[in-house]
Amino acid sequence: MDDFPKAYWSEWADKIIQRYDLKPQGSGSKKEWHGACPNCGHNDWPSTRFWINPSADGLVKFACRQCNDFQSIVKIMEEDNVWPLPGQNYDNVVPISSATAHGFDDLIPYHVKKKVDLIGAQLEGNNVVVPLFNTKKEQVGIQTIYPDSSKRFNKGLSKNSGVFGVVGTLNTDTPGKVWLAEGWATSVSIKMALQANGDPTPVLFGLDKSNLAPVCEAIAETWPQLDVFVAADNDADGGGQEAARKTGRPYAVPKAKNTDFNDIHVSLGLDAVAEQLNKLVTPESILDELVWIDDAEPVLTSNYLIKGWLGAQQMTVIYGQSNVGKSFFTLDLAYHIAAGRNWHGNKVKQGTVLYLAGEGGQGFLARMRAVQDHYGDKNVPLAIRPSPVNMLDPNADLPKLFDLIDMVKETHGKIELIIIDTLSRAMAGGNENAPEAMTSYISNSDSLAIHGQCSVLTVHHSGKAGNEAGARGHS
Q1: CA–CA separation, 130 and 186 (whole Å)
Q2: pLDDT tens track for 67-77
């Protein structure tokens, strides 16, 4: 392998997977992507011959268990433009992890996709290049961000040593507030939001969450007159917030899970970024989140949409086997909430309902007509959107749904319930059995619930063993 250019997983894996339609198998360190060999064509599913996975040093590993002809496979992948060509210098950089999904158009620069201005960076070809500094005000390296969102440092740079980037300018002679974010695009979104509100506060970025504390320590030692505030990512595993807490500095975090402030910028706009930056968490305010047992007060008021069945501002799943009437059952439930009718003898809190009908298409409208004709109520605030929705990618349909929620609220009142029917049609090709895909779905459902301050109900299928086995896919 040393005779060939190095193919880094962050840059080349998606291209190989998409070109040869490879499918994931296994999990954790044993996860591989399998498919037909580009050279010999063998594909004895499920024990396929050709596989790829990442090596410990971030390179693409691959083999064919049939032909095992490395040179022939590399030649074919070079011809298919999914492997680095000989003679090009790919070994002068080192990979770092990126939380941003791959798959962007290779011709569109990263900042265009992220909808941010080119502040504190320059464009070289289609690549965004960001200078990096230390507290001696020396440029010690660069970060290059490619159109597919992969990110590289210049070789030899230690990214956890208090190195940082500057978005705009930083006057260290003037005491005051400074924002510190993880990544460049996030920091630019924050800078743009501050500028839109006439706030000149400088913004830095620390490359990733592991470097937030070292940057804070370096600034405190060299420029104690600067008051650092951290803009953390709201990672699904809580890692971003934990890294922010370790700095000991006040920090802000987006409300929705698995988002950063650039996601808020793209989905909700710069005003939402500025608003959420103002909701600071401090070391003292964390204690305020605790309720001591002597201070506990019981909540005696009911908080439901359907008493005993469906709570307000909760996530709920209705699941069952195919062709048992899940959608009609759910539509009937939705109608009763919208009309304010008691449902099977259970009290109902009336409110507007938005039904995202990904299955049934225009045929779902016939069901609506049947329910309306049966009950005969007038001006029922129940709206159906009869088309699929992408609940995996937060930048796909979520911004449109946020706008839809706002417009419905203006004309028909606050939405109390959003229904997604079904989960499989809202996964946009994602794997229901994969924890990453299901986590993304839940995170984006949370974003809907947070934006609408409402409940979200998902219609789902049961497993092959029937309802007793629970809902289908990852738990």
Answers
A1: 13
A2: 777 888 888 88
Query: Which two three-digit tokens encode residue 11?
Result: 């840059």
Rg (CA), the chain: 26
Measured distance CA(434)–CA(81) in Å, rounded: 28
Q: How far is CA 449 from the centre of its chain?
A: 15
Give the Cα separation of 270 and 39 in Å (integer).
Answer: 50
What pLDDT, in 10s, does the model give residues 185-195? 999 999 999 99
CB-CB contact of 261 with 184 (8 Å): no
Angle 315-28-464 from CA coordinates, rounded to 5°: 55
Q: How far is CA 403 from the centre of its chain?
A: 19
Q: How many whole angstroms from its chain centre is CA 338?
A: 31
Q: What is the token pair recorded at 156?
A: 């030899």
Residue with tokens 């709206």: 383
What does the block give as tokens for 253?
Answer: 């975090």
CA angle centred on 319, ends 316 and 321, rounded to 5°: 175
Pairing label, strands 315-320, 352-357: unpaired
Write out the two tokens for 224. 């104690």
Structure-block tokens of residue 409: 């609220």
What are all long-range contacts of 144-147, with beta carbons under 8 Å and residues at least 24 apart?
Answer: 144/93, 145/110, 145/184, 146/11, 146/110, 147/104, 147/105, 147/106, 147/107, 147/108, 147/109, 147/110, 147/113
- Residue from 381, 376, 373, 384 nearest 330 by CA: 384
**Phi, psi (degrees; rounded to nearest 5) at 46:** -90, -10
- Quick check: 417 and 455 in contact, CB under 8 A? yes
Could you tell me which of 334, 327, 326, 340 has the C-alpha nearest to residue 310?
334
Of residues 36, 216, 190, 34, the one with CA closest to residue 119? 190
CA pair distance 250, 234, nearest whole angstrom: 15
Over 50: is that where the pLDDT of 95 sits?
A: no
